[in-house]
Design brief:
Aspartate Aminotransferase, domain 1, Aspartate Aminotransferase, domain 2, four-stranded antiparallel beta sheet, 36% helix, 14% strand, binds pyridoxal-5'-phosphate
Amino acid sequence: MTLDEATKLDAADPLASARARFELPDGVIYLDGNSLGALPAAAAEALATTAERQWGEDLIASWNKHGWIDWPTRIAAKLAPIVGAKPSELLIADSTSVCLFKLLAAALRARPGKRTVLTQRRNFPTDRYVAQGLAEMLGLTLTAVPAEDVLAAIDGDTAVVTLTHVDYRSAAIHDMRAINDAAHAAGALTVWDLSHSAGAIELDLTGARSDLAVGCGYKYLNGGPGAPAFLYVAQALQGELRSPLQGWMGHAQPFAFDDDYRAAPGIRSFLTGTPSILALAALDAGLDTFDGIALRDLEAKSRALSQLFVDEVEARCGREVTLASPRDPAKRASHVVFAHEQGYAVMQALIDRGVIGDFRAPDLMRFGFTPLYTRFEAVVRAAEILGDILTARAWDDPRFLERKKVT
Ligand SMILES: *Cc1c(COP(=O)(O)O)cnc(C)c1O
């Protein structure tokens, strides 16, 4: 595709105007919104207002006056259309890892007698570590099978199936509905990690009959570095499941200062401690970037951008890199990965030329196509630059070979 043709696609893009909702530096092609979403144009002012006007002027009265105490549920409600759930099923809290711990532990407590936690091999490390730790603590078995074997591995001993919906490496998507149905038929519960799904593709937690889910606030949701995460508990389970991390914010009356814990009704019982208000202010602005956006358009653009990149890269340098994502675009979410023996150095050379993606060991170059702000024209240019770097072996430079702490 020529740059001219790509520019025409941008002109016809129903999401084109959403790009103005972000601050993006000139001269940079940002293909890493799947790792850290770009800065929403409204975020800096939201942070300043919260700090200067609210914290600065109204001090502690802000908890009531500005409703801070309800921000974890008020802001979570904005996620409802993004993940296909009811506002009352969602909460902003903690980090993804901590939310996962809470929901996994709650689910395991609700399935006494069953001894297996089922996940997939090569699931995201934190998801594996949290599950390993809990299984050890509770004397259960953690079973990890290849992604394609998950359905067949569910049996009567399975207490919980926990999976990342979209693989962080390959972008392969699990069939959420099929796995939920199989788990339920076996009497098990499911806990989904939506970190690479929410804000990237269409989700329907209700329609898929999902039990529990968590997800990341700083990737496609644009909540800022280290943004709080979200958790989802299906309405039907809210009476049955109990948070394992009972804190005062999850108490029915935190300011009664009772000696004994009494769970708050509904999703609030999954709160633990005092929410980080400044971080919530940024996440609020991040979620507002989805205002009026149809998820169908979002998913269609994710696919169109990533497919264009695959086609352009393979046309230019198909012999030097190997697609490590599903070839069928319907089986991928928003990002794609290409393997190259010197993937780390190639990615550093790309970043040096203003094309920002990331690297995932051992040899994967990952490119994210955040549909709200990525242009078709940028995708063609990124593929051109990658082609140049590989042809000229520009990556073969000591500057690009030394590994940094964050890849
Ligand atoms: C990014 C990501 C996380 C992040 O976990 P934190 O606790 O928020 O650092 C968790 N799971 C998956 C699948 C991710 O991609």
